[in-house]
């Protein structure tokens, strides 16, 4: 077996973690799989790299030699990747565009806009669970553009290597059963939902949860009945009257479910385009921003509830929302 960079990362991770089980968790392996990988590496190098003990592992003499060289080799390799991925805007051989997005209503328009702007590029999409994960991918040079969402007052600060543009700021609405006593109202006051069962997806968006808790406190209650579940069953449960949920204003209609604005607009979500400042596609950022802002405007007018809200809107806290 030839030694590869990924093998050096395995050895370094085990040494850093101090145990095979902790390294396996950090790398996304099972412990047996990482143990087998380590054994193959040790056979290739001609001896054991770690001594096992009750408190974990520690490098052998051979392991120390490998680790000393691994540190420099991995640093050089990472520098090489960073320089390759951060080619300047004058480069003409870029034919792959890697996009990332938090799941949301502008993910599809992002793909469409990039393929329109760069029709000869091979465009791929990676969906991130959180904005933190999205920023890590962008900083690491693994994406050319990212589509993020955060919340006024709960923004995630950008690292200095990244630039961004705000595309739109939307109010957060509530989804109710069509048979709910409040479904006939034009808007619903958050305090009137104090005793409801709140249904939420399994997402890892801690800022959204913090925003909801803060808005509920301001409304005079603590949401005690919160049930986390797979997002695919949230709307079917709502339609049958088993709870309510916060939702994007750009939420498609579903049978048995109505979407209503929250009185006073207590919560907002912000859409933003993010990119590496030294990335090869920086010259396209302004055109992509304009295309996505227009796509949001068109989408917003397609939803009757949101369209009515726009016609009687309150300015968003970050400034004006997308013009009607």
Automatic annotation (TrEMBL):
PROSITE patterns: HTH_LYSR. The keyword Transcription applies. It comes from the Bacteria. One of its GO terms (cellular component) is protein-DNA complex. SUPFAM superfamilies: Periplasmic binding protein-like II, Winged helix' DNA-binding domain. Keywords: DNA-binding, Transcription, Transcription regulation. It holds the Pfam family LysR_substrate. Belongs to the LysR transcriptional regulatory family. This is DNA-binding transcriptional regulator, LysR family. It comes from Micromonospora pallida.
